[in-house]
Amino acid sequence: MSETGTITPETQIKKLTEDLAEETERLLKLYAAYEVQEKELLDTKAEVEVLEKEIVEREIEKESLEALLTEKDARIRDLELKASKTGKQVEHLEPELQKMEEKFAREKDRLGKVFSIAEELDNDLRLAVVELQTRDEWYMSHMSLFEDLNKAIKRRYEMIEAAAEAERQSQHMGRAITERMDEMVEARAAEMTLDEATNIESTDSESTPSEVVSAGDGDDEGDEEDEWNWSESVLTGVMDKNGITDREGFIEFAKSYDMDGNRYLKGSELGAAAADFVAKDSPAEEPPAEEEPAAEEPSADKEPEVVWKTSGDSGETQ
Questions:
Q1: pLDDT tens-digit readout, 11-43
Q2: Do residues 288 and 180 lie in contact, with contact meaning Cβ atoms separated by under 8 Å?
Q3: Which pLDDT score, from 0 to 100, does residue 136 have?
């Protein structure tokens, strides 16, 4: 039999099946190798990218280091320049340093002396504070005595000054009244005609006892020394001439013009009182200038005023 005749279809199918299985296995192995190669390629690409990034970072770091080196070189040159300048300045400042050291030594000695003086002053201050506290305690325990003494001295001189002032006012009032009466008499004499003067004198001389009015008609005999008398016609004429309507107030005011002290108000006294009474009630009319009282001469017997002053902090008495 020939070769072809011995190969049956079943043998041929079996062989083809085996070849197919073998080729399939090879293909699977090839695909697995391909996947491995592909993975390695991806890993290689990743490594390449990382290496490229590292290269860029290295380049940046290199540039920064070069810049730092350049800056460092510039700083070194500046420092060397400053060091050279400083060395020259030190050479020039060494004499000044010696002078400053000498001055420092002198000032140190002075400061030591000042400190010793300050310690002495502090000790003196402490002693003074102790003395001051002792004095304040003594003063506080006796303060009421000094206050009473000061009040008594002030009261004494106030009484003396009040009495002297009252006497001066009394003398001044007497002089003013006298001068005012003289002026009113002269003014009245200039205003009156001869007939008016004659009429008033005749009226004063012919007035009956019934025309003489007493300010104390209803009083007892024991009060006769307090009675005031005047001529009713003269009083009425003076009030009408000067336009006075307050009879009682004018009479009380005129009593201070009784210069002779006989408690009888004459026409001249009533005239002077009327002029001052009208001037007192008329603010527009300026009173005549009065003579200033003479300054009181200091008495040789008057003692100097002693004033006790108390300081606010320590209560010190002066």
A1: 889 889 998 999 999 999 999 999 999 999 999
A2: yes
A3: 84
Rounded (10°) CA dihedral 69, 73, 78, 84: 140
Contact 265, 253 (CB under 8 A): no
**Backbone φ and ψ of 121, nearest 5°:** -65, -35
Other beta carbons less than 10 A from residue 274's beta carbon: 23
pLDDT mean over 182-189: 67
Asked if the model's pLDDT at residue 296 lies above 50, the reply is no
The two structure tokens encoding residue 218 = 């209803």
Nearest CA-CA partner of 150 in 304, 303, 309, 313: 309
Look at the block and give the residue holding tokens 């007892």.
220
pLDDT tens digits, residue range 78-88? 998 888 888 88
CA distances, 105 to each of 95, 97, 102, 110, 117 (Å): 16, 12, 5, 9, 19
